[in-house]
Design brief:
Blueprint lengths: L14 E10 L2 H12 L2 E7 L2 E7 L7 E6 L10 E7 L4 H10 L3 E5 L9 E4 L5 E4 L5
Parallel strand pairs: 1-4, 5-8
Antiparallel strand pairs: 1-5, 2-3, 3-4, 6-7, 7-8
């Protein structure tokens, strides 16, 4: 592993790419486009305060494509980002590991609604999220 350090834990430690998330003004339209491109199955998820569309690969292998509503495009946030899910550690320990590797915490949404994730940025400012495990 390159970068700012490799932490002190022995053995394999990693996160899996769970979602590739698209911030959209109209996630229904964008998800419909990508469903046609990929032939992934398309499902609407309606949760209070967190309405989104999910495209899943037919074999269940590989990351899902998730399309969420944002009120307006942000010039500082990348509109496509990775959502990671810890494989070997708790969410809290994985966030600490990634910070030790050089990431910075942008927004901790673990206790907010909608929430459950932590937004981090890599050393060049590209944002990504760490979800809680159990998927």
């Amino acid at each position: 592993m390159g970068g700012a350090g490799n932490g002190s834990r022995e053995g394999p430690v990693s996160s899996a790419v769970f979602n590739i998330t698209f911030d959209c003004l109209d996630p229904s339209v964008v998800s419909e486009f990508w469903a046609a491109v990929t032939a992934y199955s398309r499902a609407h998820e309606a949760q209070p305060g967190n309405d989104y569309w999910v495209l899943s690969p037919p074999d269940g292998n590989g990351p899902r494509l998730v399309f969420v509503t944002v009120p307006a495009r942000s010039p500082t946030k990348n509109p496509v980002h990775l959502d990671l899910v810890p494989r070997d550690l708790s969410q809290e320990d994985e966030v600490a590991r990634l910070v030790a590797l050089g990431a910075s915490v942008v927004d901790d949404r673990r206790l907010l609604d909608p929430g459950g994730w932590v937004v981090l940025a890599d050393p060049e400012g590209n944002e990504f999220c760490v979800e809680h495990g159990g998927y």
